[in-house]
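Follow-up to my earlier ticket, as requested here are the two runs.
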Amino acid sequence: MSNHSNHSSPATDDHKSTVQYTHGLAGVDLSLDITLTNALWGSIIATCLVILIGRIWQLANAHLRLLFSVNAGPSRYAYWETDRTTIWPWLKKNILYAPLHKKRHNREIMLSKAVNVGTLPSRLHTIILFAYFLSNVIYCVCLDYRGKPQAAVMAELRGRSGHLSMVNMVPLVVLAGRNNPLIWLLRVSFDTYNLFHRWIGRLVALEAVVHTIAWAVNAHAAKGAGATGEALRKSDFLRYGLVGTVAMCIIMVQSLSPIRHAFYETFLHCHQVLALAAIVGVWIHCDIGKLPGSSYIHWVLALWILDRAARFTRISYRSISRQGFSKVTIEAIPGDGVTQASRVSVQLKGPWKYTPGTHAYLYLPKISFWMNHPFSVAWADSRPAPYSSLEKDTLPSSASELGLPQVDRTSDTVHFVIAKRTGMTSKIYDLAATSPSGIITSWGLLEGPYGGNDNLTSYGTAILFAGGIGITHQIGQVRHLLNGHNSFTTATEKIILVWSVKTTESLEWVRPWMDEILSMPNRKQVLKVMLFVTQPRSKKEVASRSERVQMFPGRCNALTVLEKEMDERVGAAVVTTCGPGAFSDEVRAAVNGVVDQGGTVDFVEEAFSW
């Protein structure tokens, strides 16, 4: 007669077996986790190396082109005018410059006037992101299913997904940083890294959710729902892990484009608080559990602190001295609707050597206490404020009266043009506009400069497209290239500035600086300005001044402009664009239309997508 009291039932054995897989490293394949982590890092490093090699080749080619083209004859320019291979133009047209579908890339997808669902990544961005996501999915499902109980498989999934989520937080934090060293090393814009940051953030959150669900499945099977909830309430290890996962999930929801764009200022501060909560939650979770690979979260925290320290250092050096903070002069530029803007000048405490194409973050605590926004540096010089028609009744009669800075002189004043939109930009304009003179002074902080990695000096022809306020990115490039031409330090022989605006009132945004450019030596031989006014009030408004400063009514047809200018180009050509997404997409499509027609042409887009 058997004694059943001395033997446990199969259900009890399964219960005891499952319990061991609810905590610790039981079932976790640590050696495979490390192997797959190394594979992930290897793929990241390999991608960076491929980009780096490509950049080195581009820079070496550009340097040789500059050396052989400066002050050279037509024969030297002719060599660089055409591509010597069909491979590179094909890559540009189909991979590097290609949108994901048709021509939409930075044009925002709007479900309504109030609902913005974001932009589409380019074809190259999509390839990289798809490969990154696919590799993580493969790593997560690469489990040992052979004859193992379900609880053991779930434990292995718990360990794998949690480990990968923590590992992916390292590139996530690096790509979010304004001082990301990869920006300078790989010459890739912050906007591109910001795109990758958003998608890797979603991946980190999804892997954290999988990690939590895998634990919950085993815990529920072993202890039931009540005991699982009790464990979460009593265990600091579990509670802080849950804090990290919940914070990531909230970030994933609030960072969706419609919410992010509708409440951006609120989103930004909530995002920073939640990101810190996620990092701290995962850190304590790993520290209590003595989890392998916890050094990754230490790197994450260190990188987060280093970026903040670098930002504080930049702000302190540029904007703070014993005498106080930087002086800020704000001038309202009157207009109608979209043409209303502010010209903002910041006197720096620590000077910088201005590089065209840079941007900086502006803090104005008296106007908007917490907010800071990136703005393109339109101009930089060594005078306290821009020439203003509101301060004088007559135009300057000479370059000395304009106060022209010396070429390559270190700048102590930087200038921005900030279009009136909502929030901080609206407050800036309204305060200046309501003052008797239209000008106010305040104090502020400047963080920067950032960007400015695209050097155009090796190109014989530079075609610069600007849409609306995008002129602030291009006007500094025009001055830099003209100065270089006059001092024989650039290869540029032809500059075409194409600016599209809604009304002629927008011309006031940069009039003092454009007047300075138009007074520069050799300007007529080198620079051609094409102004497209889409909503002119009369035909008289768009009368061309000369063959070198032309005005046209209607929209700019980028392809028509490019085809004409490419036929008349000198040496290699570069096309740059800065403006609304739809405008930049038209320019990108136009470049793709001519890039494989034999002439050497490169494309550079400046964008800020948030």
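Run two:
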Amino acid sequence: MFSQLHVPSTDQVKESVGSLLQFLQTTSGISGAHTVEFYTQDVWKNQMAISPDSVLSIFSQQQNHYRGCKDAPDISRIFSPATKHLVNLELFVEAAQYYSLMTLGLCTPIGELCEVFATRRKKKPDKEIKTDQFMNDKKSHEVVIMSQLVDGIASIYNVNQVIDLGAGKGYLSSYLSMRYDLKVYGIDSSHSNTDGANKRNRKLKKYWQVYKTDARTTSKAQKSDHKNETLLPKSACQDVNADRDISRHRMSDLRFKKSLVSDSHVSDEISLFSDWTCNMASHPTQSTDTVDTSDTTLTFLDILPAGAVELPSMSESVSKVLSDLEKEQRKMENIKRKKLKESRVYSPLTSYVTADTELHDIITDLEESIMVGLHTCGDLAPNTLRIFVAKPEIKAVCSVGCCYHFLTEQFENVEEECTEGTWGFPMSQYLKEKCWHIGRNARMSACLALERAAVGQGLPTESLFYRAVLQVICKEVYGITQRSYSIVPQNKNIQKMDQRVGKIFSKSSSFIDYVRKSLKKFRQDDLKLSDQEIMGYYEKYEPRRNELEAFNRLKVFLAPCIEALILLDRICYLREQENLAWSGLVKLFDPVKSPRCYAVVSLKQP
């Protein structure tokens, strides 16, 4: 079955990784620079031999002329051998395009996967769900596409259980359960997320019941003409003349011989009949028994489908007037039965998952399952793959990672010994042997979205400029730096301060307000500076704003390349395992709607 899928060989993957490493090493000065210290370290002057306007111009052209190149570019001509400054912008852009996943040709088209899975997929009820009623457009796009893929995989292995790691608010879990009738456990480390998922769970359950009722009503209305025909399904009343007026039998014929029933109980009986009528319309039953049509009397038991009630209890209930105690007992029994009948949309669980997590401790009824993750944060994505490899119950995995800046790296701190353990990067033995590390700033760059930036979205230029100028003030006036140094800085007067501004920009009315709020967060005396002095810094660096904009455009070009290395490392890790039938990268989503659009998919032998 998997022979039908496009799959690059392990040697091809490693060859691509090798050339990608050379390009990333060459461009590490750009990807590894922190825009917070753009002005304090004079980044543009120290790394560029081109003008900011040329970068902004070529980036604007790429919005309409994004093209890949077939042959690997000569990266040795991008930077000056003597000064290491960027001198060939066109070649830089060409190389960045070449080392993206799509140009390297290492992805399996989603269409091929769907075509293969379609031959194994069981026919399921056609239940359309309007996801826009409880998801935004982005989440709806992601959930619908990923759910189709997961359902196809479930059909291959004939499994019904799905484990959603990093389930968050439970959108994917809910949809898998409602749309495809899969038994889903959504696991998240945040109690607040789980609590929110439970609340959303109850709302979705109500929504889903109403939705199904509306769907049934619509279906029945379509089948009925405008001549007052009964809406009872023919399959449920196939031996009853549909033209007969059932309502005229309610009082006269719905009775039992030798039974005296109070008026109140007759009302209960009629109510029960009405409830049954609605229920039978929703759940038609097939019956092979025949009714003697010569008898014109239509009794209550003649209408009821076989097995609908227990005859002894029904006979007892109508042969006497129920006492208050018996009524209360019956009420409690009905409540218990209703609660047992009701099922959750899915099961949200709270647990912090690592590579060593024992799933049986979290899921007591663990069975053969598929493990999924939609935008699992940091190390959770690689740990999802490790759990998949280690646990025989997990037959397949579909993981879309995100938040690369939260990945832990084994070889990032060069002054420390490389300790053994579980790290987010690298996963593969191939990259571990090279002791390769990316660095946090480069991983931050990997989170940028080229496709969004190309259409004018995704780059908070104003807030980045505010932050870079604020850093100049912090250094020159207060003697502090935002970054934590791994090596003691030469200037002993500079304090180390690992604090972040956070979301102050969105809450600030002006640059002055932004600076004062930030300084207070840093526990500094903002009254050291007057408003005029603060605006003096702003006016000094305003003419150099285009440098910061242009530099961030260059980082955006490198984002797909760094992401490619992270994802290819995961594929290499899976290829190094012995018990897997197929592993590949699949582009699931529209990158403008969902920048983290690649899924790592791996399958064991069915």
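The only thing I checked on run two: The radius of gyration is 33 Å. Let me know what else you need.
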